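Reading a protein record of the kind used here takes only a little practice. The integers have meaning only within a learned vocabulary of local backbone shapes. With that in mind, consider the following protein and its fold in token form:
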Amino acid sequence: GRNSSSSNNNKNLIIDDIQHEDLWSTGIAAAVVMGTASRYHKTFFMFPHGRKVIVPIILGTVALCLSIVTLKSCRFLTVLPEENSQVFELGPWSYLSPGTVYDGEVCLPYPSDMEVDTPFMVARMVSVLATCLGGGLLLLTTTMMCIPYSESSISLLGLGYILAGTLQALTMVFYQTNNCKGVGYFRGLQCKPNQDLVFCLAACVLYLACGWVLYMLQKFVIVPPGRSASQVYTCSAKSKSSDERKGILRTVEKSWTKIPSGETLVATVLVER
């Protein structure tokens, strides 16, 4: 009895030690992240295009979330079959389970033996493309907080968002599927909009709005007046006057900025840490 109790105590001590080590490692990792962020936050968030660039970032984030909801939806449209028949709710990649089969509402993948017609396939394809394109564009837009872009690059971002909004709108081709025309797997006579169609329309509008802000309103997001640079080059080199014994690090920072007029501005700064 004593041996078993002592072994249990040893196991508890080992578990406590592991938990303490996990807490220590988590705390150290959090301290490193916070210290790095506090040291370089000015570098990451310089806002060379001004703080108004946050507007398309917010619009793009909300649009991407709504696009993901549409992609995972199983309530995009409602299939109305003949009278006294089961009503089905469908989405691009899944459908809502009948209430008589499962307890509660469950999104199920389509059966493997179901034939997918052209509108069905197009709706699936554009829903994935809109989500992937919107995510990539949002990632690029967030870099505008620390990287200066040329006007042509901003225009391409705007066109990309307009394309994402167009692809998102094409998801509504789903309503032309054979399942709404009396044939197909679900044999519905007609289809009516369901609740998740609102998310698709909202994502489409927000993508188009984000593209309009970037493409049509470049005056609000370009670099500050007098510094509308098309190309920026930087170079950093260690200075000979550095003294590592005293913990002094001196570097020479050089920056070449080519402005649209063709002239090149050169700036040299001696930084001591």
User: Anything to note?
Assistant: The longest strand covers residues 250-258. The radius of gyration is 28 Å.
